[in-house]
TrEMBL record:
It comes from Lactiplantibacillus plantarum subsp. plantarum. Mg(2+) binds at E71, D89, I91, D92, D211. Its cofactor is Mg(2+). It is an enzyme of class 3 (hydrolase). The lineage of its organism: Bacteria, Bacillati, Bacillota, Bacilli, Lactobacillales. GO terms for molecular function: inositol monophosphate 1-phosphatase activity; metal ion binding. Keywords: Hydrolase, Magnesium, Metal-binding. InterPro entries: Inositol_monoP_metal-BS, Inositol_monophosphatase-like. This is Inositol-phosphate phosphatase. GO terms for biological process: inositol metabolic process; signal transduction. Its EC number is 3.1.3.25. SUPFAM superfamilies: Carbohydrate phosphatase. Coiled coil: none annotated. PROSITE patterns: IMP_1 (PS00629).
Length: 257
Protein backbone atom coordinates (compact mmCIF):
# COMPACT_ATOMS: atom_id res chain seq x y z
CA UNK A 1 0.00 0.00 0.00
CA UNK A 2 1.18 3.53 -0.76
CA UNK A 3 2.29 5.52 2.28
CA UNK A 4 -0.34 8.24 1.76
CA UNK A 5 -3.07 5.57 1.57
CA UNK A 6 -1.80 4.05 4.84
CA UNK A 7 -1.78 7.54 6.40
CA UNK A 8 -5.38 8.23 5.40
CA UNK A 9 -6.51 4.80 6.58
CA UNK A 10 -4.73 5.42 9.89
CA UNK A 11 -6.57 8.72 10.41
CA UNK A 12 -9.94 7.15 9.58
CA UNK A 13 -9.37 4.11 11.80
CA UNK A 14 -8.53 6.36 14.75
CA UNK A 15 -11.92 8.03 14.31
CA UNK A 16 -13.57 4.58 14.16
CA UNK A 17 -11.80 3.57 17.40
CA UNK A 18 -12.94 6.79 19.13
CA UNK A 19 -16.54 6.17 18.04
CA UNK A 20 -16.32 2.56 19.23
CA UNK A 21 -15.03 3.74 22.62
CA UNK A 22 -17.91 6.21 23.02
CA UNK A 23 -20.44 3.46 22.22
CA UNK A 24 -18.84 1.01 24.68
CA UNK A 25 -18.79 3.66 27.44
CA UNK A 26 -22.50 4.38 26.82
CA UNK A 27 -23.37 0.67 27.05
CA UNK A 28 -21.47 0.28 30.34
CA UNK A 29 -24.24 2.17 32.09
CA UNK A 30 -26.80 -0.42 30.94
CA UNK A 31 -27.40 -4.06 31.90
CA UNK A 32 -24.70 -6.42 30.52
CA UNK A 33 -25.58 -9.85 29.19
CA UNK A 34 -22.74 -12.19 30.18
CA UNK A 35 -22.25 -15.72 28.80
CA UNK A 36 -19.59 -18.38 29.38
CA UNK A 37 -17.80 -19.59 26.24
CA UNK A 38 -15.58 -22.56 27.18
CA UNK A 39 -15.36 -22.11 30.98
CA UNK A 40 -16.31 -19.77 33.85
CA UNK A 41 -13.08 -17.86 33.13
CA UNK A 42 -13.85 -17.40 29.42
CA UNK A 43 -16.65 -14.83 29.06
CA UNK A 44 -18.39 -12.93 26.31
CA UNK A 45 -20.90 -10.09 26.69
CA UNK A 46 -23.42 -8.31 24.49
CA UNK A 47 -20.87 -5.46 24.26
CA UNK A 48 -18.17 -7.80 22.86
CA UNK A 49 -20.69 -8.72 20.15
CA UNK A 50 -22.04 -5.23 19.44
CA UNK A 51 -18.57 -3.68 19.34
CA UNK A 52 -17.29 -6.41 17.04
CA UNK A 53 -20.29 -5.90 14.72
CA UNK A 54 -19.55 -2.16 14.67
CA UNK A 55 -15.81 -2.52 14.02
CA UNK A 56 -16.32 -5.12 11.28
CA UNK A 57 -18.92 -2.92 9.54
CA UNK A 58 -16.65 0.14 9.69
CA UNK A 59 -13.62 -1.80 8.41
CA UNK A 60 -15.72 -3.21 5.52
CA UNK A 61 -16.75 0.33 4.59
CA UNK A 62 -13.12 1.55 4.62
CA UNK A 63 -11.62 -1.51 2.93
CA UNK A 64 -14.31 -3.50 1.05
CA UNK A 65 -12.01 -6.16 -0.45
CA UNK A 66 -10.33 -7.03 2.85
CA UNK A 67 -10.69 -10.23 4.85
CA UNK A 68 -11.56 -9.80 8.53
CA UNK A 69 -10.68 -12.23 11.32
CA UNK A 70 -12.69 -11.35 14.43
CA UNK A 71 -12.76 -13.15 17.80
CA UNK A 72 -16.51 -13.51 18.20
CA UNK A 73 -17.08 -14.74 14.65
CA UNK A 74 -18.62 -11.73 12.85
CA UNK A 75 -15.87 -11.66 10.24
CA UNK A 76 -14.67 -14.10 7.59
CA UNK A 77 -13.07 -17.53 7.66
CA UNK A 78 -9.46 -16.48 7.09
CA UNK A 79 -7.13 -19.27 5.94
CA UNK A 80 -4.18 -17.27 4.57
CA UNK A 81 -2.59 -13.84 4.98
CA UNK A 82 -2.72 -12.86 1.29
CA UNK A 83 -4.05 -9.37 0.55
CA UNK A 84 -5.52 -7.16 3.28
CA UNK A 85 -6.29 -9.02 6.52
CA UNK A 86 -7.78 -7.15 9.50
CA UNK A 87 -7.72 -8.89 12.89
CA UNK A 88 -10.20 -7.68 15.52
CA UNK A 89 -10.53 -8.17 19.29
CA UNK A 90 -13.60 -6.09 20.25
CA UNK A 91 -13.08 -6.30 24.04
CA UNK A 92 -9.76 -7.64 25.32
CA UNK A 93 -9.96 -8.43 29.00
CA UNK A 94 -13.66 -9.32 29.05
CA UNK A 95 -13.26 -10.69 32.60
CA UNK A 96 -12.02 -7.26 33.72
CA UNK A 97 -14.78 -5.55 31.74
CA UNK A 98 -17.41 -7.60 33.60
CA UNK A 99 -15.90 -7.59 37.11
CA UNK A 100 -13.94 -4.34 37.25
CA UNK A 101 -15.54 -2.12 34.61
CA UNK A 102 -11.90 -1.20 33.99
CA UNK A 103 -8.64 -2.52 32.48
CA UNK A 104 -9.90 -3.69 29.10
CA UNK A 105 -8.95 -2.72 25.57
CA UNK A 106 -10.20 -2.85 22.01
CA UNK A 107 -7.71 -3.94 19.39
CA UNK A 108 -7.44 -3.96 15.61
CA UNK A 109 -4.49 -4.95 13.41
CA UNK A 110 -4.01 -4.73 9.63
CA UNK A 111 -1.65 -7.02 7.72
CA UNK A 112 -1.02 -6.61 3.99
CA UNK A 113 0.31 -9.78 2.35
CA UNK A 114 1.42 -10.80 5.84
CA UNK A 115 3.26 -7.54 6.51
CA UNK A 116 2.37 -5.73 9.77
CA UNK A 117 0.86 -2.44 8.53
CA UNK A 118 -1.43 -0.74 11.07
CA UNK A 119 -2.32 -1.44 14.69
CA UNK A 120 -4.67 0.00 17.34
CA UNK A 121 -4.81 -0.71 21.06
CA UNK A 122 -7.35 1.43 22.93
CA UNK A 123 -7.21 1.25 26.74
CA UNK A 124 -10.81 2.40 27.10
CA UNK A 125 -10.97 3.57 30.73
CA UNK A 126 -7.51 5.17 30.73
CA UNK A 127 -8.47 6.80 27.40
CA UNK A 128 -5.14 5.84 25.81
CA UNK A 129 -5.15 5.06 22.09
CA UNK A 130 -1.93 3.57 20.72
CA UNK A 131 -2.09 3.77 16.92
CA UNK A 132 0.07 3.48 13.83
CA UNK A 133 2.56 1.24 12.13
CA UNK A 134 6.01 0.99 10.56
CA UNK A 135 5.25 3.48 7.78
CA UNK A 136 3.46 6.14 9.82
CA UNK A 137 5.07 5.81 13.26
CA UNK A 138 3.28 5.06 16.51
CA UNK A 139 1.24 7.67 18.35
CA UNK A 140 -0.31 7.73 21.82
CA UNK A 141 -3.42 9.94 21.67
CA UNK A 142 -2.02 11.61 18.56
CA UNK A 143 1.46 12.37 19.95
CA UNK A 144 4.38 10.50 18.42
CA UNK A 145 5.58 7.79 20.80
CA UNK A 146 9.35 7.34 21.18
CA UNK A 147 10.82 3.84 21.07
CA UNK A 148 11.26 2.45 24.59
CA UNK A 149 14.83 2.03 25.88
CA UNK A 150 16.41 -1.40 25.31
CA UNK A 151 16.27 -2.38 29.00
CA UNK A 152 17.32 -5.89 30.04
CA UNK A 153 15.15 -8.28 32.07
CA UNK A 154 17.17 -7.71 35.25
CA UNK A 155 16.42 -3.97 35.14
CA UNK A 156 12.69 -4.05 34.41
CA UNK A 157 9.21 -5.29 35.37
CA UNK A 158 7.95 -8.36 33.55
CA UNK A 159 4.41 -8.85 32.22
CA UNK A 160 3.32 -12.33 33.24
CA UNK A 161 0.16 -14.29 32.54
CA UNK A 162 -1.60 -16.02 35.44
CA UNK A 163 -2.00 -19.49 33.84
CA UNK A 164 1.65 -19.68 32.73
CA UNK A 165 2.89 -18.44 36.11
CA UNK A 166 0.72 -20.83 38.16
CA UNK A 167 1.89 -23.79 36.06
CA UNK A 168 5.47 -22.44 35.83
CA UNK A 169 5.34 -22.97 32.07
CA UNK A 170 8.44 -21.81 30.16
CA UNK A 171 10.23 -21.40 33.49
CA UNK A 172 8.15 -18.32 34.15
CA UNK A 173 9.08 -18.31 37.83
CA UNK A 174 12.78 -18.13 36.92
CA UNK A 175 12.10 -15.36 34.39
CA UNK A 176 10.31 -13.40 37.12
CA UNK A 177 13.08 -14.07 39.65
CA UNK A 178 15.57 -12.46 37.23
CA UNK A 179 13.33 -9.43 36.65
CA UNK A 180 12.42 -6.61 39.04
CA UNK A 181 9.08 -8.36 39.55
CA UNK A 182 5.92 -9.62 37.83
CA UNK A 183 2.84 -7.62 36.84
CA UNK A 184 -0.42 -9.30 35.78
CA UNK A 185 -3.32 -7.25 34.35
CA UNK A 186 -5.69 -9.78 32.76
CA UNK A 187 -5.64 -7.99 29.41
CA UNK A 188 -3.10 -8.84 26.73
CA UNK A 189 -3.80 -5.49 25.06
CA UNK A 190 -3.08 -3.45 28.16
CA UNK A 191 0.05 -5.45 29.01
CA UNK A 192 1.38 -5.11 25.47
CA UNK A 193 0.67 -1.36 25.59
CA UNK A 194 2.76 -1.23 28.78
CA UNK A 195 5.66 -2.81 26.87
CA UNK A 196 5.19 -0.15 24.15
CA UNK A 197 5.33 2.58 26.81
CA UNK A 198 8.49 1.14 28.41
CA UNK A 199 6.62 0.28 31.64
CA UNK A 200 7.36 -3.45 31.19
CA UNK A 201 10.45 -4.97 29.54
CA UNK A 202 8.43 -7.89 28.22
CA UNK A 203 5.17 -9.83 28.22
CA UNK A 204 4.76 -13.59 27.78
CA UNK A 205 1.39 -15.27 27.44
CA UNK A 206 -0.51 -17.95 25.55
CA UNK A 207 -2.30 -15.86 22.92
CA UNK A 208 -4.77 -16.17 20.07
CA UNK A 209 -4.20 -14.15 16.84
CA UNK A 210 -6.52 -11.28 17.91
CA UNK A 211 -4.75 -10.98 21.27
CA UNK A 212 -1.46 -9.88 19.67
CA UNK A 213 -2.19 -8.82 16.06
CA UNK A 214 -2.40 -5.10 16.89
CA UNK A 215 0.37 -5.31 19.47
CA UNK A 216 2.78 -6.96 17.09
CA UNK A 217 2.40 -4.14 14.53
CA UNK A 218 2.94 -1.45 17.17
CA UNK A 219 5.75 -3.28 19.00
CA UNK A 220 7.80 -4.00 15.88
CA UNK A 221 7.32 -0.39 14.73
CA UNK A 222 9.00 0.71 17.99
CA UNK A 223 12.00 -1.63 17.71
CA UNK A 224 10.60 -4.23 20.12
CA UNK A 225 10.66 -7.92 19.20
CA UNK A 226 7.78 -10.37 18.91
CA UNK A 227 8.50 -14.10 18.73
CA UNK A 228 7.58 -17.59 19.84
CA UNK A 229 9.30 -18.82 23.03
CA UNK A 230 11.84 -20.71 20.91
CA UNK A 231 12.73 -17.43 19.19
CA UNK A 232 10.96 -18.37 15.95
CA UNK A 233 8.71 -15.86 14.17
CA UNK A 234 5.01 -15.74 15.04
CA UNK A 235 2.28 -16.80 12.62
CA UNK A 236 -0.85 -14.64 12.64
CA UNK A 237 -3.17 -17.57 12.00
CA UNK A 238 -2.16 -19.78 14.91
CA UNK A 239 -2.33 -19.63 18.69
CA UNK A 240 0.53 -20.23 21.10
CA UNK A 241 2.88 -18.65 23.59
CA UNK A 242 4.05 -15.25 22.34
CA UNK A 243 6.83 -13.07 23.76
CA UNK A 244 6.82 -9.29 23.21
CA UNK A 245 9.94 -7.71 24.65
CA UNK A 246 12.89 -5.39 24.28
CA UNK A 247 15.77 -6.94 22.34
CA UNK A 248 17.86 -7.36 25.49
CA UNK A 249 15.03 -8.83 27.57
CA UNK A 250 14.15 -11.23 24.74
CA UNK A 251 17.72 -12.56 24.70
CA UNK A 252 17.66 -13.12 28.48
CA UNK A 253 14.19 -14.71 28.45
CA UNK A 254 14.92 -17.09 25.54
CA UNK A 255 17.99 -18.30 27.46
CA UNK A 256 15.80 -19.16 30.48
CA UNK A 257 12.88 -20.77 28.60
P1 LIG B 1 -10.11 -11.83 25.99
O1 LIG B 1 -10.55 -11.10 27.18
O2 LIG B 1 -10.29 -11.06 24.70
O3 LIG B 1 -10.70 -13.21 25.87
C1 LIG B 1 -6.39 -12.68 30.11
O4 LIG B 1 -7.50 -13.49 30.20
C2 LIG B 1 -6.04 -12.35 28.66
O5 LIG B 1 -5.90 -13.56 27.89
C3 LIG B 1 -7.05 -11.52 27.93
O6 LIG B 1 -6.34 -10.67 27.08
C4 LIG B 1 -7.88 -12.53 27.19
O7 LIG B 1 -8.51 -12.01 26.05
C5 LIG B 1 -6.82 -13.54 26.80
N1 LIG B 1 -7.28 -14.90 26.55
C6 LIG B 1 -6.90 -15.66 25.51
N2 LIG B 1 -7.48 -16.86 25.54
C7 LIG B 1 -8.26 -16.88 26.64
C8 LIG B 1 -9.12 -17.88 27.22
N3 LIG B 1 -9.31 -19.09 26.68
N4 LIG B 1 -9.78 -17.56 28.35
C9 LIG B 1 -9.61 -16.35 28.91
N5 LIG B 1 -8.81 -15.40 28.40
C10 LIG B 1 -8.13 -15.64 27.29
CA1 LIG C 1 -12.48 -13.95 24.73
CA1 LIG D 1 -8.20 -10.97 23.73
CA1 LIG E 1 -11.94 -10.42 23.34
Amino acid sequence: MQTNVVKQLNQKMQVVMQTARAQVLAKMGTHLTVAEKTSRRDLVTNVDHSNEDFLVRQIRALDPVAKILAEEGTGDQVTDMNGHVWIVDPIDGTMNFVHQRNHFAMMVGLYVDGKPTLGYIFDVMANKLYAGGPEVGVTLNGELLAAPADVDLSAGLFGASAPLLIQDRFNMQTIIAKSLGPRIMGSAGIQISQVLAGELVGYLSYLRPWDFAAGRVLAESLGLVVSRVDGNPVNMLSSGAVLIATKRAQRSILAIV
